[in-house]
Amino acid sequence: MEFKGARILIVDDEAPIRKLLRVALAGHGYEVAEASSGQEGLNEAAVYRPDLIILDLGLPDVEGLEVVQRLREWSKVPVIILSVREQDYDKIAALDAGADDYVTKPFSMGELLARIRAAMRHAAGVGEEPVLSFGELTVDLAHRRVLLGEKEIKLTPIEYDLMKNLALHAGKVLTHKYLLRAIWGITYESETHYLRVYIGQLRRKVEADPSHPRHIITEPGVGYRLL
Amino acid sequence: MSRFKSQAVTPYAVALLMMALLTALASPFKSILGLVNIAMIYLLPVLFCASKWGTGPALVAAVAGVITFDLFFVPPTLRFTVADIRYLISFAIFIVVGLITGTLSTKLRKQVIRSQQREAVVTALYALSRDIAAVPDLHSVLESVARKVTDTVEGEAVLLLPETGGFLEVKGRSQYSKDDFPDEPGRRVAAWVFAHGQKAGYGTETLGEVTGLYLPLLTEQGVQGVLAVRLNNPESYFQPEQVRLLEAFAGLAALAVNRIKLAEKTREAETLVESERLRTALFNSLSHDLRTPLASVIGAVTGLLEEGGVYSPAARRDLLQTIQQGAITMYRFITNLLDMARLESGMLKLKKEWCDVQDIIGVAVGRLGEPLRSRPLRIDIQHDLPLIQVDFVLIEQVLINLLDNALKYSECNSEIYVSARQTENRIQVAVTDIGSRIPEEDLEKIFDKFYRIISPLQVSGTGLGLAICKGIIEAHGGEIWAENSSGGGATIIFVLPLSDELPGQIPEIKEGEVNGI
């Protein structure tokens, strides 16, 4: 899947970061627009109609969370959060408010590009294929089957539900809250230990070495991601 | 007051009564006993009164004795005659006996009272000195002194110590002392006492018109403060013994205050030395660990910018990797410094959640990436390890630091071993490398800030990694320590307490949904 020529809006108050992103993204064939404040970012989003927004959390005028919330009132454009380590709480709040993914500074360009591609793929709705493959791991949504190579893996209903949610949003981070709501319901949205238990079980079934997970990746303090 | 009077009158009344009784009892036996014996019997009440109450009642008894003896026993009875003059001798003997015995017993009694007072003083002083000897904080010492003063004299006590700027501040007061003491004139007297090192106030020759007695807390190093005492009864006055006792209290208080001040000064000096040492360490660390990677970054960047086509693609890649490595090193350094500052300032808030230790280890291993992938890594995690309530990100940070150390302090290609198991109500995680041993005397010091052991491997780092680990683990109520393993190399072990509460039961839901079979 190629997204060359897609429009990306960078919302960051730090000129060096904007410059870095502009150069790198343009180099990868994206069209880039910039905004240096939250308000400007919201205006640009309406005028420029980007295919994806990269949003810094430490904006001087509007809280990143608020930018996401106001954006989500009228737009489904994918949003990738740029954050520093100390903004864990804001980052999770922004993700729960509808941001699609996050990258922590300092980030590698490869990491950011991978996130951009995953977010755009989901926005384009191409994740709805009935059979999803991740290396030797296959999730067959139509037949409710999970295969490791040729071998079928037996999963409990909850394990399968978890696997399905992760697979449908492959490459994208899913927050604890999102997964708990999707699988157990809104009442259980803060029972993180359910996930710890089931992710552990799932890993023992689908990972070659559960201590070195290659598919089900933990995003510390945030959630999980399937690769 | 009336009670006081009646007490003073009683001995005289008893003396007279005894004489009356004796006369009544002895008169029937007048003929049997004879005058001489009766005169002897009359000496008894005199002796009794003298030894019990002193000279006054004894004299009264003696005079009464002579008169009744003369009236009732010496013929002609019931009247005085000139012939009775010879009995003046008996009269004189009675009085002399009364006087001598009375004086002796009064003196003796005074001595007893004085030695009792002295004993009380010594006991009080001893009790106070014991109370304040080992107390490290000034406040408790001053409270003890004030309490002891109120226990000894019926009044209230306040201790004033100089603040910065030389103003005296009330630093300790007895429980029942009122806030208005010392009043404004009193404070001026206190200031005078503090300046001159002499007592003043009520009952002294200096400034005697104020309420309350002001005593300096004197030591060889000068006046430490002022002890102010006010008696509950404004009409009573300070006994000389009380003043001496108060002075002794003031002396003890002065010693204690001085001792605590000196201890504080010592502590301050130690802190200063310690912070000076840390500053030097930080300075060295900054100048070396931050400048070295920066220099390599600048070198590589200028090389690339000014090249003009001399570098092969491989060389360019080398330079770029140098830049990357330098930048990562600096980033890690600054992160460590910030983490340390956060830990020390107490700004670090634990975000505890239920975590799977295996998951944390997996994330930490993944985070170290390439350097660790090239190493044989053995991970041994107990199968049914319970979930633990910790801050995932921080414990991950601990593991990253430990693994990073293991990588740096062991030969490349040597194995690194990570284990996790439950021991009683704790989870124990150990990271072991096969490298150089840690000298025994350094086993504890390696957790100090900026402490680096000398290693044959040229190791770069901040000297903060283990200090941060220790801070994080201790914030979780756990422990961390280092051991030398028998096979050579070092093990860093940390334990985290399992919480008493258990994670809630996970509901089985969405019945009927089964994945394809």
Folded structure, characterized:
The complex is a heterodimer of chains A (227) and B (517). Chain A has 227 residues and is an alpha/beta fold. Chain A is built from eight helices and twelve strands. In chain A, the strands form three sheets. Chain A has a five-stranded parallel beta sheet with strand order 2-1-3-4-5, sandwiched between helices. The longest helix of chain A has 15 residues, at 109-123. Chain A is globular, with a radius of gyration of 18 Å. The relative contact order of chain A is 0.10. By secondary structure, chain B is of the alpha+beta class. In chain B, helix 5 runs antiparallel to helix 6 (138-152), helix 5 runs parallel beside helix 8 and helix 10 (357-368) crosses helix 12 (392-408). In chain B, the strands form three sheets. A five-stranded antiparallel beta sheet of chain B has the order 2-1-5-4-3, with helices on both faces. The termini of chain B are far apart. Chain B has three domains: 2-113, no CATH class; 152-262, GAF domain (Beta-Lactamase), CATH 3.30.450; 347-497, Heat Shock Protein 90. Chain B is elongated, with a radius of gyration of 45 Å. The chains are: A alpha/beta (227), B alpha+beta (517). At the A-B interface, helix 6 and helix 8 of A face helix 9, strand 6, helix 10 and helix 12 of B.
**Into which percent range does the helicity of residues of chain A fall?**
40-55%
H-E order of chain A: EHEHEHEHEHEEEEHEHHEE
Shape type of chain A? globular
CATH topology of the largest domain in chain B: Heat Shock Protein 90
Question: What would a concise description of this structure say?
Answer:
The complex is a heterodimer of chains A (227) and B (517). Chain A is of the alpha/beta class.
Key phrases:
A: 227 residues, alpha/beta, five-stranded parallel beta sheet, four-stranded antiparallel beta sheet, 12 strands, B: 517 residues, alpha+beta, Beta-Lactamase, Heat Shock Protein 90, 3 domains, five-stranded antiparallel beta sheet, five-stranded mixed beta sheet, 55% helix
